[in-house]
Amino acid sequence: MASRPPIIVCRPPPWEFGARKDVFMVSAAIKDALLTRLDHLPVELQQRVVAFADTLVPSTPKGTPGLDLLRFSGTLDEDSAREIRHAIEAGCEGP
After folding, report:
1. What distance in Å separates the CA atoms of residue 66 and residue 76, rounded to the nearest whole number?
2. Average pLDDT over every residue of 56-85
């Protein structure tokens, strides 16, 4: 049997950096089952599995932090806020 190249993970999961301390490999049995199955896949499919797993890891939402938006609090009058809300509920369709 020909030796297979090692699985190369391009980037470690964020919890290895301490970003998500609540996320970890819960079961050694799950880890072993995944590794066993990966062992039988060609490298291209192993890479696809890693890419898929990356999509499952929650990422930090992009956008402006809420604290930066507090300065706008109270700047909309009630009629403008109602008009915006109705436009959003209607699917933001223009006239």
Report:
1. 17
2. 84
Two tokens at 21? 């301390």
Q: Specify the pLDDT at position 43.
A: 92
Residues whose CB falls within 8 Å of the CB of residue 4, separated by 6 or more in sequence, listed in order: 39, 43
Q: What is the DSSP letter of 71?
A: G
With vertex at residue 9, the alpha carbon angle to CA 56 and CA 31, rounded to the nearest 5 degrees, is: 65
Kindly tell me if the per-residue pLDDT of 9 is higher than 60.
Answer: no
Q: Where are the alpha helices (DSSP H) in 40-77?
A: 43-56, 66-69
Delimit the domains of the chain by residue range: 14-89
Q: Which residues contact 25 (CB under 8 A, 6 or more apart)?
A: 31
User: Averaged over 59-74, what is the pLDDT?
Assistant: 82
Tokens representing residue 13 in the block = 């999961």
